[in-house]
Amino acid sequence: MGIPTPLSSAAPRELVIILTNDEHGYLLPVEDKDFYYGGAAYSAASWTQKGYDPSEANPNVLLLSGGDSWTGPAISTWVRGESAVEVMNLMGYRASAIGNHEFDFGQEVIRQRAAQAKFPFLAANLYRQGTQESPDFVEPYAIIEIQGLHVGVIGLALRETPTVVAANNLQGLTFGDYEPTLRRWVPVVKQKGAQVVIVLSHICPDDLLVLASEVQDLGISLFTGGHCHEARVITIGNSVIAVSSAHWNDYALAKLTYDPQTGQVVKTEQQLVDVLVMKTAQDKLKPDPQITQAIAKWNERVQLALGQVIGYTASGLRTNSPAMHNLLVDSWLWAYPNADLAISNTGGFRQDLAAGEITIEDIVGVLPFDNELVEISATGQEVLRALDEAGSQFVLGGMRRNERGQIVLLRDGQPLNPRATYRVLITDYLYSNKKYLFYLYDDEPYETSILWRQPVIDWITAQHSNAENPLDRRIDSRAR
Questions:
Q1: Three-state DSSP class for residue 272
Q2: Fewer beta carbons below 10 Å: N end or C end of the chain?
Q3: pTM score, two decimals?
Q4: Using one digit for the tens of pLDDT, what is the confidence trace for 204-230?
Q5: How far is 471 from 46, CA to CA, in rounded Å?
Q6: DSSP strand E in 114-226: where?
Q7: Is residue 62 part of a domain?
């Protein structure tokens, strides 16, 4: 990267930044009888309608993503983000932070998506283990020329990524602290000619507030974030913080006015724009045909692969309802009767199961991760210890908490015996993640090679449910 040519005009320049984050592959909008909510095509149509299409017609517009772009509905998850990146290319993204969910399918998939993307993945605090060097699928920063203005964009990955991602997917990587990373790289991008500095991160708004206050002396004009699905647009000191929520349901719009004579950003404006379209007023927001055609192509491919109807629910299941939780772990024990107990984590459930016909595509959207089941041996005391450490994060199969808070077995209502040994099904994610305790209990777990959502598909199929004989009455909906 050479030192860019200075601005040829002394007139102030306005830079418009559009930020989305945590898109999670929601290429299609969510809808009810009256509205469409979010989705890639309507989001792009919204900023185009406002005159901020990030194309050659608007050379002062910079479109950025805060990461977690592709794990979610089957239209993206099933093809490991290939569809999401193709659509983001068409939308005009110029850079993306690395989110924790970018690692869901392993580092080789990130390499594939990085080769596919027409924009860089950025993470200045992501290193090859034992070094201060970036892995080959990310860059620490990018300098992007916007109508003669040179913008330094520094990426930050979530520091806590190792606590929320399967350890096998992070082998050979370490994540550094935010403040030292910025103190290292901000001078570098300025020396390379950046006149405006932006931090593009996958960090929650509250943590960004702390970080921005710690590095006010570095002259960073804009901090963008993600991860917590909490929208925020505020100013702290001389910096703007802009974070959208998720799923292209909204986007943050920040305007920075740069004065070449002073070398400073002299004015800022920011707002949050909801993407909400009335079905009766679609003609007021027309999506780009190229984008809609690309989404339709991927939707058709996924429908062909996963559109098989396997069951029917009269009322549907909410994401983190007892019925949804019990469906998962009970299906494991049904499919793998050698086990006594089953434990999953609440964070693995990603969307509701709508009322009506159930397809394989629906189950992939509910349980998008490629986790596999492992069987461990653990004493009752060890199971109790694990539940005490992180019980509210766990889904229980074969056991429940009774009215007195005791863990009792579903088969006979007797308390879990602390001295007895049980065969427990968990996911490889729970076993490999050191913030849980399961890895301590059995150093030779049995890898079943069963994908965690497959028993759900098989159990639902085996019930032969339909509108006259819905699935609902066969699912235990009691909280455990």
A1: strand
A2: N
A3: 0.91
A4: 999 999 999 999 999 999 999 999 999
A5: 40
A6: 121-122, 126-128, 141-146, 149-156, 173-175, 196-201, 222-224
A7: yes
